[in-house]
Amino acid sequence: MIASQEQWVRFTPRQRLVRFSWYFGIVAALVFSARNVEIIPEFLYDAPEQVADLVSRMWPVAWDYYPTSVHAVMIETLHIATLGTIITILLAVPVGFLAARNITRSTTLNYLAKLILVSSRSVNSMVWALLFVAVFGPGAMAGTMAIAFRSIGFVGKLLAEALEEAHPGPIEALQAAGAPWISTVTKGYWPQIQPAFWSIALFRWDINVRESAVLGLVGAGGIGTALDASMSLFDWDRVAVILISIFTVVMLAEVVVTQLRKRII
């Protein structure tokens, strides 16, 4: 009588069922999304010709438009991003301390801080801009506040995680020596989270430069205002100048932030 040999299988029946369920769910979601997007085939087939026509309208680029109308709003865009990031840090640091469980022992305050962080991240920057345009009116003030409130969730969450990952040894030593709370923060926590803090702040400023470039489309100031005006008038050669300016500034911001993070970290 020949003994039966065991056959190796990679997945158990339960694992295969779970994998099939995931694959089926993904395919079903894609099919459902494709059917509800309502893509018009005629527009899709005509897209390459439309792109070629749009590029031809952008050439030659109206470089003389930059010093008269683009430079000032580009500087305003950088001011919106920078001031918005500074306001974010001032608002996000207290919320981050409240969200850190090793610092704030109150569960109620922890959940309240996390609610603020989630609320900030849940609302898109364009929606924040629309809200603040209704409050402050069109202009850079609305854009600055939109950038600030949108960034609180990002900075506060990462700061809270950095605080929770701090080594408890120096903090416990300071507390055992009777150091006040502010000394515990500045001498115990700050030296440990300082590289992460500056890295988070620089990274968020880089993101804010990109986001502030389009807030003008809803009236929140910056270069988006000039972009919206040029597109409304079909001045595609001026649109080309604005797009090139945005791309250049975003690339320069990326390089600056990368170099600064290398020096800090």
Structure description:
This protein is mainly alpha-helical and 265 residues long. The chain has a domain at 80-264: MetI-like (MetI-like fold). It contains ten helices and no strands. The protein has helices spanning 13-37, 41-58, 65-99, 107-122, 125-136, 140-164, 168-176, 181-212, 223-232, 236-264. It starts with 12 loop residues before the first helix and ends with a helix.
Could you list some keywords that capture this structure?
MetI-like fold; 265 residues; mainly alpha; extended
- Derived from helix and strand composition plus strand pairing, the structural class reads mainly alpha
Output the CATH homologous superfamily of one domain.
Answer: MetI-like
CATH class identity of one domain: Mainly Alpha
Largest sheet: none
User: Secondary-structure element sequence?
Assistant: HHHHHHHHHH
- Please name the CATH topology of one domain: MetI-like fold
Query: Outline, from the CA principal axes?
Result: extended
Tell me what portion of residues adopts beta-strand conformation.
under 5%
Helix proportion range: over 70%
Distance between the termini: 69 Å
Count of β-strands:
0
Overall pLDDT, averaged? 82
CATH architecture of one domain: Orthogonal Bundle
What's the Cα radius of gyration?
26 Å
Uncertain residue segments = none
